[in-house]
Specification:
Length: 503
């Protein structure tokens, strides 16, 4: 899994981990912050939330065009600095009046523009590492590793957001003002990102783009005919059209799925179920998964011994945590968002092992086919939510019920996040890998930006969930996303031959 990869991959992945930790710390509480701090209704809060996500994923298109001209590394650096200014501005408590709202919106513009310069261009640099023929066959696995690194940051983010807010409240800050401390975490994480980027810059400097300096190697790019270029761009645009609806559905995790966690899910958990809400227990499980792979794949006795020791110690730790459980554990809505990154990190080696085995047999599905399968799996994920919501009232009725409100087990959401993560692993890292491989050399930044434009449109459409949230039965809300994912999958299969021609 990790063998034979260029060192630059790990440097770029770690730089991205720090930035993503800050971003997801903010996102974990942002929708609830909008409702509590400014008193916004779910629809308006959803519109602001989805518009911000839309900008975050649209602006990489602009950033990609700029990077194709001025260099990827330069845009990444400028992006980090602009993001830092935005998060710093967002960290300042200004009250809940109109002026504070305007300042908050301005901070979001800074964050989204900085992300636009940083996010896509960092991933282009990762892809450029694999233009070297000796690394070409490791491109898909590299993006899986890169995607896993993103989610390591996201794994700890919800816990960090909740704990820092609780700490701020404990030292005397009002509940609404305490949100700003969660946002301040992003400032610290960006400092770490820029430090990693520059310390390890020599390992990837050759893929930063821009004007080459004396003594630096210039990477040659293959020339494509106009027809080849057009075919590749059309294929990528067709994929972009499909992934819009995946992200529209998937990013309900920060909106309607968070509303569900806040309004319909039991506020406490006990027994073995409660252990899932402690991030350190999840980390122990991740250690077990990776140690098991190392135990069975390694050929060195020393490595096998260390792997076995890690498994034993992790199991002992989990047993100790279980035996020392006392009473119920409080469950806050934002904490559910750590399940998705946990599943990504834990399941990435499983996914890579499966596809690696299929590849050795010559049966590995193409990247476009994996994307289509991902859409089908996403539909199943919302099917789980539909089943779990059949006996529940509408959100409006739930609010009106007061003490008679109905709450369900957290396991419905935990299971949904598991299924959606399977879909995400099939679609997101494979989609990014597909773009980096297929994009015409002269338009790499633009095409990677195009992937994020599709994501942006999907994120803008996330607000649909906010507007559906109200008088409609919950199963109807989830059914909308089921239908959209199924239609997208069918469309993907209908154009599969065309897409596979350019792979």
């Amino acid at each position: 899994m990790f063998e034979g990869q260029p060192k630059g991959l790990y440097a770029l992945a770690l730089a991205n981990t720090g930035e993503r930790f800050g971003y997801y710390t903010m996102i974990a509480v942002f929708a609830l912050f909008l409702k509590a701090y400014f008193g916004l209704d779910p629809g308006t809060a959803g519109l602001i939330y989805s518009s911000f996500l839309g900008l975050v994923y649209f602006l990489p298109f602009i950033g990609g065009i700029m990077a194709d001209k001025f260099g990827y590394g330069r845009m990444v650096t400028i992006g980090i600095l602009i993001m830092f200014a935005g998060y710093l501005f967002l960290s300042i408590p200004l009250g809940g009046d109109t002026f504070a709202l305007i300042c908050m919106l301005l901070a979001l513009v800074f964050i989204s523009f900085g992300t636009g310069l940083f996010k896509g261009n960092l991933q282009v640099m990762v892809g450029n590492l694999y233009d070297d023929p000796k690394y070409a066959d490791k491109r898909d696995s590299a993006f899986s590793i890169f995607y896993m690194a993103i989610n390591i940051g996201a794994l700890f983010a919800p816990t960090a957001a909740v704990k820092i807010k609780e700490w701020a409240e404990s030292v005397g800050f009002a509940s609404n003002d305490a949100y700003h401390f969660s946002f301040a975490v992003a400032c610290a994480s960006l400092i770490l990102s820029i430090a990693i980027y520059y310390i390890f810059r020599p390992t990837f400097r050759h893929v930063e783009g821009g004007v080459a300096k004396a003594g630096e190697a210039v990477q040659t790019e293959q020339e494509l005919s106009p027809s080849e270029t057009n075919n590749r761009i059309i294929a990528l645009c067709l994929v972009f059209a499909v992934v819009i609806f995946f992200w529209m559905a998937f990013h309900q995790n920060g909106l309607t799925l968070t509303y569900f966690a806040d309004e319909f899910t039991a506020k406490s958990s006990s027994g073995i179920e409660s252990m899932a809400f402690d991030v350190f227990n999840l980390v122990a499980i991740i250690f077990i998964v990776y140690a098991l792979f190392s135990l069975f794949q390694s050929k060195k006795g020393r490595t096998k011994t260390i792997s076995a020791l890690v498994i034993v110690l992790s199991c002992v730790y989990l047993y100790y945590r279980y035996t020392t459980l006392e009473g119920d554990v409080a469950v806050s809505a934002p904490i559910f968002q750590h399940f998705n990154p946990f599943y990504v990190v834990a399941l990435t080696p499983v996914s890579m092992a499966i596809f690696g085995s299929l590849a050795r047999k010559g049966k590995e599905p193409s990247a476009p086919r994996k994307i289509a399968y991902g859409m089908l799996v996403a539909a199943i994920g919302f099917g789980v939510m539909a089943v779990g919501s059949l006996s529940l009232p509408s959100p409006d009725a739930q609010k009106a019920a007061g003490d008679a409100a109905v709450f369900v087990s957290p396991n419905w959401l935990i299971t949904t996040y598991l299924v959606l993560t399977f879909g995400e692993l099939l679609l997101s890292p494979m989609g990014i890998s597909f773009v980096s491989k297929v994009a015409p050399p002269k338009y790499k930044g633009m095409m990677m930006g195009g992937w994020f434009v599709a994501t942006a449109i999907g994120n803008i459409l996330v607000s649909v969930g906010g507007y559906l949230w109200g008088s409609l039965p919950l199963w109807c809300v989830w059914s909308v996303f089921i239908v959209l994912c199924l239609i997208s999958a069918l469309f993907m299969f209908s154009i599969m031959k065309r897409l596979e021609k350019v792979c």
